[in-house]
Amino acid sequence: MRSIAVMNQKGGVGKTTTVVNVGAALAESGLRVCVIDLDPQAHATLHLGSDLRPEQPSIYHVLTGQHRLEEARRQVADNLWVVGSSLDLAAAETELASVAGREAILRDKLGEDSQTFDYLLIDCPPSLGILTLNALVAVGEVFIPLQPHFLALHGLSKLLETIGRVAARLNPRLKLGGVVLCMYDANTRLAAEVSQDVVEFFQAARGQSTPWAEATVFQTRIRRNIRLAEAPSFGQSIFQYARSSNGAEDYRELAAEIRTGSGR
Amino acid sequence: MRSIAVMNQKGGVGKTTTVVNVGAALAESGLRVCVIDLDPQAHATLHLGSDLRPEQPSIYHVLTGQHRLEEARRQVADNLWVVGSSLDLAAAETELASVAGREAILRDKLGEDSQTFDYLLIDCPPSLGILTLNALVAVGEVFIPLQPHFLALHGLSKLLETIGRVAARLNPRLKLGGVVLCMYDANTRLAAEVSQDVVEFFQAARGQSTPWAEATVFQTRIRRNIRLAEAPSFGQSIFQYARSSNGAEDYRELAAEIRTGSGR
Ligand SMILES: Nc1ncnc2c1ncn2[C@@H]1O[C@H](COP(=O)(O)OP(=O)(O)OP(=O)(O)O)[C@@H](O)[C@H]1O
Ligand SMILES: Nc1ncnc2c1ncn2[C@@H]1O[C@H](COP(=O)(O)OP(=O)(O)OP(=O)(O)O)[C@@H](O)[C@H]1O
Ligand SMILES: [Mg+2]
Ligand SMILES: [Mg+2]
Fold first, then answer.
1. Mean of the per-residue pLDDT values of chain B
2. Is B130 in contact with B93 (CB distance < 8 Å)?
3. In terms of CB atoms within 10 Å, which end of chain A has fewer, N or C?
4. What pLDDT score does B157 carry?
């Protein structure tokens, strides 16, 4: 199983939109995909049309040992399952703060999971707290969505530092799989310049012994496209909502790139 | 002094851009403005060209009692001061977790502040944790920047709930001053529809006894404008960087609306 945490502490850069639409694209191509929504805002859960009724167990109940992963997971489409989030999860940061081994709870629960998938995609909140750490400890790869704006570069080094620390102390197999340029304002100089800076940054990192030494910036850029922002209001992926839009085209292409590992 | 927390747990909706450019506009009109950067990402600090050298005290040192506000504050332009943030602040959430009265620390420090200002603007991180709570307890008003996308409505009720709880238990004078529609994609149906939903929501709330009963949606919408995203890379407000852009026009207009309290 390829397990991927989609993270960036910067807000509103396309983490959720990427998890939902890459997950949907992979599922459409016949792969079994499980999405875990690790954000108390539960936007991936809503976006996939799976908003939890109060009695439905969420990832919160799994992390606090009240339910197993299987009991919190629901199928939302062919080949596509989601373990939803709920508001309760906001309490997790405080409740888990003093639990020994608190960064490895999700990894342990996944270890006990009886179902198998081809892809596991974890949607992280905009922070580097205990929820994101649980994702980083549980997976083999990280994808970082980035909006090609100036401040994106500034946050990147802190992000990589966090990945490096987790790889060194808690999860030696963790690697940065790639950077996804999202919300790309085509035809603006800013997007082109920042994207170029990001590409050069990772080219310079090659051959070192860091967890991002083999990281790539995916060739596919996700262009800004209002359809991507409209789809969540119908609880649909971009492929259900606007199949021939730029947004669908770009995420379909990105999913193919992820599958083949091309762009490396 | 008019003290305003600019908050929204949703990421990337324009909190920082609004704090920096409204602050700069108010300062240009002759008012004394103090910005407090309460986000560990320190984007407001960077944007105002005030990135902290390691020896410079930040808001972290103020909250942990190591320095006074005056020692952490720097002037960045005529009439414009900033109390900067730094990476240390990320530790604050954990360090302050068990301190009694931890939500009132900023209010107490402001109470000890010897300098006076016309406006205090606090930039909050994308969360409802201890840092945002400190802002809500310390101020008289809240502004909520909103990107007119579907998920914006979903997060709004949780936000208002938080404001209501703080007003009830910790800060009786707290009011929602207004909602700022940011990153407005002009000519899209989605922006128009969500904006209309937000306006109707607050119209329906009038006459009740909630802290948002008199809240307004500011008439000024901040349109999407690439100049606003470019300005931070030069450490400049939009007025220094691109004075005649749509972004400058919109933020100038918003600052005027804030000053006159028009739109109510
Ligand atoms: N390429 C795009 N074009 C237009 N709108 C987009 C695009 N990608 C995402 N959006 C919209 O922008 C907003 C922010 O995106 P999203 O929620 O995926 O970011 P996020 O990183 O998950 O945010 P958060 O940090 O709050 O979790 C959403 O309303 C989404 O629908
Ligand atoms: N109206 C706009 N048009 C174009 N770009 C904008 C606009 N407003 C903000 N931006 C850019 O969008 C990105 C997100 O904005 P900003 O950082 O102000 O949001 P935020 O709510 O403070 O994010 P966070 O939740 O991470 O603190 C920034 O790169 C900013 O420069
Ligand atoms: Mg998200
Ligand atoms: Mg910000």
1. 93
2. yes
3. C
4. 85
User: Chain B residue with minimal CA distance to A88?
Assistant: B158
pLDDT per residue as tens digits for the range B240-259: 999 999 999 999 999 999 99
Q: Is A212 exposed, middle or buried (0-12, 13-18, 19+ CB in 10 A)?
A: buried
The two structure tokens encoding residue A60: 């919160």
For A11-68, write each residue's pLDDT tens digit: 999 999 999 999 999 999 999 999 999 999 999 999 998 866 777 899 999 999 999 9
Tell me the residue ranges of DSSP E strands in chain A: 2-6, 33-37, 73-77, 80-83, 119-123, 141-146, 175-181, 216-217
A173 compared with A157, residue with greater pLDDT = A173
Q: Which of B10, B151, B225 to probe by mutation at the A interface, max A CB count within 10 Å?
A: B151
Residue range A165-179: mean pLDDT, rounded: 95
d(CA B120, CA B78): 15
With CB atoms and an 8 Å threshold, state whether A12 touches B9.
no
Let me know: does A17 contact A46? Beta carbons within 8 Å.
no
- Selecting from B94, B190, B232 the residue whose C-beta is nearest the C-beta of A150 gives B232
Contact B154 A43 (CB under 8 A): yes
pLDDT of residue B173: 95
The answer to whether A120 and A3 are in contact (CB under 8 A) is yes
Contact yes or no for B11 and A126 at CB 8 A: yes
Report pLDDT for A88: 87
Give yes or no for residue A263 having a pLDDT over 50.
no
Pocket-forming residues, ligand 2, beta carbon under 6 Å: A 10-12, 126, 149, 151; B 11-17, 39, 43, 125-126, 182-183, 222, 224-226, 228-229, 232
Distance CA A5, CA A144 (A): 8
Burial class (CB in 10 A: 0-12, 13-18, 19+), B193: middle
Answer yes or no: are the C-beta atoms of A90 and A60 closer than 8 Å.
no
Tell me, yes or no, if B158 comes closer than 8 A to chain A by beta carbon. yes
Chain B residues whose beta carbon lies within 8 Å of the beta carbon of residue A154? 41, 43, 46
Cα–Cα distance measured from residue B54 to residue A219, given in angstroms and rounded to the nearest whole number? 37
Helix B130-138 to helix B150-169 angle (10° resolution) is 60
